[in-house]
TrEMBL record:
Top-rank lineage group of the source organism: Bacteria
Domain (Rho termination factor-like N-terminal) ranges: 53-79
Alphabetical list of Pfam families matching this protein: DUF7218 (PF23855), Rho_N (PF07498)
Protein's recorded name: Rho termination factor N-terminal domain-containing protein
Composition bias, Basic and acidic residues: 1-24, 37-60
Residues making up the signal peptide according to the UniProt record: none
Region of interest (Disordered), residue spans: 1-82
Length: 82
């Protein structure tokens, strides 16, 4: 049974599995708290094919700080590395 990580983690089992794979705590928490994570099946558009506004909204959803002043390429970098 997965350890209870408190109310800040919605899917404890997914969080623990990601941490075992070496994913950072922040990224594991973000993925574990995304209701439809893992259900898209790789069908999402590449970041380069999205508009800056779409990237901004995704950055807002995952809580990337400073996103309002970022360029499109900076948003892509932040989304990939955060």
């Amino acid at each position: 049974m997965a350890k209870d990580h408190g109310p800040s983690i919605k899917d404890d089992a997914k969080y623990e599995a990601l941490r075992r794979e070496g994913v950072s705590k922040q990224k594991a928490a973000r993925i574990a708290n995304t209701p439809d994570a893992g259900e898209r099946g790789g069908k999402a558009k590449d970041y380069e094919d999205r508009s800056k506004q779409e990237l901004y909204e995704k950055a807002k959803q995952v809580g990337i700080p400073g996103r309002s002043k970022m360029t499109k390429s900076q948003l892509i970098h932040a989304l990939r590395n955060n």
